[in-house]
Design brief:
Mean pLDDT: 86
Number of strands: 12
Pfam family, one: HTH_1
CATH topology of the largest domain: D-Maltodextrin-Binding Protein, domain 2
Domain HTH lysR-type: 1-59
Keywords: Activator, Amino-acid biosynthesis, Cytoplasm, DNA-binding, Methionine biosynthesis, Repressor, Transcription, Transcription regulation
Number of helices: 10
Order of helices and strands: HHHEEHEHEHEEEHEHEHEEHE
Radius of gyration: 31 Å
Helix content: 40-55%
Protein name: HTH-type transcriptional regulator MetR
Shape: rod-shaped
Number of domains: 2
CATH class of the largest domain: Alpha Beta
Organism: Thiohalorhabdus methylotrophus
């Protein structure tokens, strides 16, 4: 059987051009090295180099093994380096799924910073419109889920990222825009614009309309936050969004943000990770980078107590 050390030995013979110099590189005597080569030749039934040639010249069989060495030794070395990085937590896979569909304003700068700092980590991103991100995390299909709706799932831990206020985005010329807060009944005859996900994953239904037994007159959906806010601005309906997701539109006055209920509605954004993986260096670095970048980019958020990103 041809083994890695055989290929390494022949590569060194070619590099040094002599048995004596190769023996020195391997910290062997020339006779011990010659014995190893002879042992390999006896096993294969061929000669690997011409004994009397100066400089050293390989046989056709030797050239064939050197070709094999040129193909596989670099791959083996690369794999060993990659495995060492994985063992040290310096490399790995970080596939991210979003249940937060308006997170791109802070997530893209986070990914840009993280890629520069951790180039050995394979990154990918998917939006959970048509998949269930948290079950995918349990299965191992993704490695981190950004969500505001934690579920009690075995083997999953949730790291709070920041707190935020949920507002009702209203057309600026609608009577509701001048109210100090909105009641569920205010939406009974209105169009509600949401992301195309199940109602049980939307706070506006589970925490506001549902408990009051209120159903909007119509529900329409769009996948893009920008389109959702444009529809609100043009008087096509209302939408419930985190305040930080409509910062630009609030500043321009194209929409008005109305608190949901007299006490308002708050939420927390989490990063969901499989237990046992949160302490990996590349994962710890991502969660810290996300906390720093979200605080830097967004204004309508509050840090979670004990989660100082500085």
């Amino acid at each position: 059987m041809i083994e890695r050390h055989h290929l390494h030995l022949l590569s060194l013979l070619r590099e040094t051009g002599s048995l004596e110099r190769t023996a020195g590189r391997l910290h062997l005597t020339p006779s011990a090295l010659s014995h190893r080569v002879r042992e390999l030749e006896d096993r294969l039934g061929v000669s690997l180099y011409h004994r009397r040639s100066r400089p050293l010249r390989f046989t056709q069989a030797g050239d064939r093994l050197l070709s094999l060495a040129d193909r596989f030794l670099p791959e083996i070395q690369s794999a060993e380096q990659e495995l060492a990085s994985l063992a040290a937590g310096e490399a790995g896979r970080l596939y991210i799924a979003l249940e937060c569909h308006s997170c791109f304003d802070w997530l893209i700068p986070t990914l840009d910073t993280y890629r520069r700092q951790w180039p050995e980590v394979s990154l990918d991103l998917t939006v959970g419109f048509r998949v269930e991100p948290l079950p995918a995390l349990v299965r191992g299909d993704v490695d981190l889920v950004i969500t505001s709706d934690p579920q009690d799932l075995s083997g999953i831990t949730y790291l709070p990222l920041f707190r935020y206020q949920v507002l009702l985005a209203a057309p600026p010329d609608h009577p509701l825009a001048g109210r100090p807060w909105a009641d569920p009944s205010d939406l009974a005859g209105e169009t509600l614009i949401t992301y195309p996900v199940e109602r049980q994953r939307l706070d506006i239904f589970t925490r506001f309309l549902g408990p009051a037994g209120i159903e909007p007159a119509q529900v329409r959906t769009t996948e893009l936050t920008a389109m959702l806010l444009q529809l609100v601005a043009s008087g096509r309906g209302f939408a419930a969004l985190p305040a930080w997701a409509m910062e630009d539109h609030l500043e321009r006055g194209s929409v008005t943000g109305v608190p949901l209920g007299e006490q308002g509605m708050a939420g927390t954004l989490y990063m969901a990770i499989r237990q046992g993986e949160a302490e990996r260096p590349y994962m710890t670095a991502f969660t810290r980078t996300a906390a720093i970048e979200s605080t830097r980019v967004l204004t309508h958020i509050r840090p979670v107590p004990g989660n100082d990103p500085s």
